[in-house]
Specification:
This is Glutamyl-Q tRNA(Asp) synthetase. The protein has about 170 residues and is α+β, with helices and mostly antiparallel strands. The chain contains six helices and seven strands. A three-stranded antiparallel beta sheet has the order 1-2-5. Strands 3-4 form a two-stranded antiparallel ribbon.
Amino acid sequence: MKFPGAAETILRQLEHYGLHWDGDVLWQSQRHDAYREALAWLHEQGLSYYCTCTRARIQSIGGIYDGHCRVLHHGPDNAAVRIRQQHPVTQFTDQLRGIIHADEKLAREDFIIHRRDGLFAYNLAVVVDDHFQGVTEIVRGADLIETNSKANLAVPAFWLESARLHSSAAGA
């Protein structure tokens, strides 16, 4: 759902709190070509696959995807795209909180990077955009620590390095 003027309001609020950006604001809604290119590269490298599992199926097996479609070779029709988990990131170093241990089951989960409805997942978009913008240090709210372990998985797939810091003030 889109609300006219919402994006401009958010940008003004960020400026009010003293947050400024180095260049033009990058809109994910205008970066679909870059995300499609990343998806194609991941597919060519054998690092992703199509998945037709529903949320209901995943909930029925405990809520964590079990890799069911990894070897089924589905086509793109009515399918999401998942990253092929090869080297799970079960821990990473946060510059503020030290070593963070991720939930083992979640760390091993092949997560969605492109939804079946055509939307690109945050975990793909943020890695592609961070690389494009030359981001080397990432500050996110403490509530995104678990999400960061998934982004950490995607980062090695693109051969990127970035420092991380999760601040309680930024979201917990």
